[in-house]
Specification:
Elements lengths: L7 E7 L6 H20 L7 E7 L2 H13 L3 E8 L9 H6 L4 E5 L13 H6 L2 H14 L5 E4 L5 H21 L2 E5 L13 H8 L2 E5 L1 H9 L3 H14 L1 E2 L2 H4 L1 H24 L3 E3 L14 H8 L3 E3 L4 H13 L7 E10 L5 E5 L14 E7 L5 E7 L5 E10 L4 E11 L12 E6 L3 H10 L5 E5 L4 H11 L2 E5 L5 H17 L3
Parallel strand pairs: 1-2, 1-3, 3-4, 4-5, 6-7, 6-9, 8-13, 9-10, 16-19
Antiparallel strand pairs: 11-12, 11-18, 12-17, 13-14, 15-16, 15-18, 16-17
Length: 499
């Protein structure tokens, strides 16, 4: 299913004039059929655009420059149908600033044993041509994904889509603005970072806005829009009727609806798709947004608590990468542990957990918030859907960024948690809490994360490679001694590489 219809991945075939016009005509027909097959694949989420066969250095350079200049192009799939001498690719790949996937396939699946001759061999020599092309990518030190297999194979489609979604995430980051309302929480280290370095590395911009600007947008929200949103709350969530019949409670609901509308209008007006706030600075606003932040996340906005702009950006990027997939993505925090037969983590936040991860229809309730500000705040309460998930933390190490990923298994809480007034998810870290938490701490992972059941580990791996950042994974194969050595090896590599 094509989810990202406003974007494209370009399919470019490599060959040369050596084989004559009839062979090149067949190459073009085969390429067109492969593109049609990829577009028909249900699992590939980005449309694939057939961009012809390149046969000379000038043609290769031209298609690379055209891809650079087309905002709808998020990357290229490059395939060598025949032998394409790799020196022809140097100028184009030198200038190409979009990611590419090297598809190592061939048009036919089985060999025609009774009919095969040298004409067939000369036409169908991807095994030959792709190795030549692979050399130049390695010689030029270009990070890229290589997918091997027949183009009709569902596993190939899955790998292609993992990479396509990563390219979409890179594109989302390059076009992202993060709005900061208030500063990072005082004395907290991991939520800080170098915004200039982040813009260079990921492409997104981080801007600060005064709370007065936001308050003005909130106060300008019309009563009619507020009433319409209240009706939407009533039809979407489980809630007590007294939230609207009790005058004091309804006042709180009106305040929250006004916050949601005002924040969304302000973010849209400045072109921001992610934001942060802090409960230490709410000047001019009625309270810390709870339901408002949850619903904005469900609409695709990234969020980071206490000024955590790196996590806010990653939440939005992962929401984009996970579009059309089952499961949701949310801002999350490792809050408290359950030590027992199987050690577990209860993840939550003060208010802001996205309902896209909910197992059941959320309940809308009002409870007293006591951290930083003391106020009754509407919020959605639910438990996270059980199943596999990932927790992702992007941290600034000063000389480089590291993306830390822990694969986790979310489970249903054994009891109902009747007195916990916040949304939450209960998970078991892989390989277990003892190793997983120790590895996370050794790697410098934050207490905040982007939690997702929609984005695969393979997509995150491709994203990190395209972005050019270090990635370390904690999963069932993690052993702490080897993990600590991996961190040391990575540090030496990036230092030698100039990071």
């Amino acid at each position: 299913m094509k989810v990202f219809n406003d974007k494209q991945v370009w399919f470019v075939t490599g060959s040369q004039h050596l084989y004559g016009p009839k062979v090149l005509e067949q190459v073009a027909r085969d390429s067109a059929e492969i593109v049609a097959g990829l577009n028909a694949a249900e699992t590939i989420s980005v449309p694939v655009a057939e961009k012809g066969t390149v046969k000379t250095p000038d043609e290769i350079l031209a298609v690379c420059q055209a891809a650079n200049n087309d905002p709808s192009c998020v990357g290229l799939i490059l395939w060598m149908h025949t032998f394409s001498p790799a020196k022809m690719w140097i100028a184009g790949l030198t200038q190409l600033n979009k990611p590419f996937l090297h598809l190592h396939t061939q048009f036919n699946a089985a060999l025609p044993w009774d009919d095969i001759d040298m004409d067939f061999m000369n036409l169908n020599q991807s095994a030959h041509g792709c190795r030549e092309f692979g050399f130049i990518g390695t010689r030029m030190n270009i990070d890229r994904k290589v997918v091997v297999g027949h183009w009709q194979n569902p596993e190939v489609h899955k790998q292609v889509d993992d990479w396509c979604r990563a390219a979409i995430g890179i594109n989302a980051g390059q076009n992202l603005k993060v709005a900061r309302f208030g500063d990072n929480m005082r004395q907290v280290a991991v939520t800080e970072g170098n915004k200039v370095s982040a813009q260079i590395q990921f492409g997104y911009e981080v801007h600060a806005y005064g709370l007065g600007e936001l308050a003005e947008a909130v106060n300008e929200t019309s009563d009619a829009d507020v009433n319409a949103l209240l009706d939407e709350y009533a039809s979407t969530y489980d809630m007590s009727p007294n939230l609207f019949t009790d005058s004091d409670l309804k006042k709180l609901m009106v305040q929250e609806a006004r916050l949601e509308l005002g924040m969304e209008n302000f973010l849209n007006s400045v072109g921001a798709k992610a934001y942060t706030n802090t409960f230490e600075n709410l000047t001019g606003t009625t309270n810390l947004p709870g339901l408002a932040s949850q619903r904005l996340m469900s609409k695709g906005f990234g969020y980071g608590g206490e000024g955590d702009w790196k996590t806010s950006a990653m939440v939005h990027i992962m929401k984009v990468m996970g579009q059309g997939k089952q499961g949701g993505t949310s801002f999350m925090e490792d809050y408290t542990y359950n030590f027992g037969a199987r050690d577990q983590v209860l993840g939550a936040h003060m208010l802001e957990v996205c309902p896209s991860i909910a197992a059941k229809k959320p309940k809308l309730e009002i409870h007293l918030h006591t951290i930083g500000c003391r106020a009754d705040i509407p919020r959605l309460i639910f438990s996270g859907q059980e199943g596999p998930a990932v927790n992702v933390s992007v941290i600034d190490l000063g000389s480089r960024f590291r993306m830390l990923v822990n694969v986790v298994d979310t489970v249903t809480p054994p009891q109902s948690l009747p007195h916990l007034p916040v949304a939450h998810a209960l998970w078991e870290p892989q390989p277990n809490l003892q190793v997983g938490a120790a590895a996370w701490i050794h790697a410098g992972g934050a207490h905040h994360s982007a939690y997702s059941q929609a984005v695969s580990l393979d997509t995150l791996t491709d994203y990190a490679e395209i972005a050019g950042i270090e990635m370390v994974v904690i999963d069932n194969s993690t052993q702490l001694r080897q993990f600590k050595q991996e961190l040391k090896n990575n540090s030496a590599y990036y230092r030698l590489a100039g990071f």
